[in-house]
Structure formats: C-alpha cells, structure tokens
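Please fill in the sequence for the structure shown.

STRUCTURE ENCODING:
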C-alpha cells in the first residue's frame, strides 16, 4: 500500500471511529495482533472509477457489538447491539470510503461504489488476513481489528 494512502487511511479511521462510535484506535503491526475469538465480522466495499478496488475491515464479533452499542447507546451485551453489529461495521466502511476518497483523489473524482458486502467468518479467514502483507492492524479500545485496502489502476 502506498505510504500516503496508508497515512490518510489511518487518520480517517481514527477520526471516523471517534465520531461514529466514540472509540479510539492505534495502528499496530499485524504480527502483534492476537485474538482469543473464533468468530469475526467482515465488511467489504468495492469501487470503480479512476482507480478500482476494495476496502475491507474485519473485527471480532465482540468488537462489532461494542461499535454497535456505542452507536445505539446500549450495552455491548444487549440484543440490539449484537443483532446490529454487522450493520454498524458496514456503516463504518461507508463512512471510511466517503471521507477517504475526496482526500485521496479530490472532490471532483467520480467513483461507483457497491453496497457493503458483509459476512461472518471464522478464525481460518482471520489468520489468512494476518498473513496478507496488504493488511493493516489496529487496536480499537484494546480489541484487534484488520483493514485491507486494495487499489488498482482502472
């Protein structure tokens, strides 16, 4: 990943997490990521235009529920938070793309965005991401999170 894209992505993730769900994050090396969880949420948003690619994020189920609970104003163990965890992650991906692209490509660049594709995944998929050099690691309020940004020429 190009350094300027990486820096912008990190800064915007920090801002969006704080504004959207009142959470804080720190980038950490992927090699240092550890999770006791075996079930994860993944959200991916594809795009085409001057550049094409995908922005994806994967978090443990528990962190998804924390994000949703902070948005909804409930407890992370509340049924609403658990049931809306995937939707909250999808909305976070939408916010990331919506704020990242004008920074990277200018306000006049036109892109076509898909809708977030979401899935529950297991630790095998989590471990596959950990081995991918394009993945960025984060600690979000002490919980691990992975972000993947693939950018190709159109």
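FILLED IN BY: designer on duty
SEQUENCE:
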């Amino acid at each position: 990943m190009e350094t300027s894209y990486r820096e912008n992505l990190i800064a915007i993730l920090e801002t969006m997490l704080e504004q959207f769900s009142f959470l804080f994050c720190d980038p950490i090396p992927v090699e240092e990521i550890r999770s006791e969880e075996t079930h994860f949420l993944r959200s991916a948003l594809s795009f085409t235009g001057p550049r094409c690619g995908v922005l994806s994020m994967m978090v443990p189920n528990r962190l998804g529920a924390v994000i949703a609970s902070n948005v909804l104003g409930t407890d992370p163990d509340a049924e609403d938070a658990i049931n809306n965890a995937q939707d909250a992650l999808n909305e976070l991906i939408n916010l990331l793309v919506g704020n990242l692209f004008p920074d990277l490509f200018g306000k006049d660049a036109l892109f076509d965005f898909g809708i977030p594709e979401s899935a529950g995944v297991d630790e095998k998929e989590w471990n596959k991401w950990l081995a991918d050099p394009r993945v960025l690691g984060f600690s979000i309020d002490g919980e691990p999170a992975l972000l993947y940004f693939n950018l190709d020429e159109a």
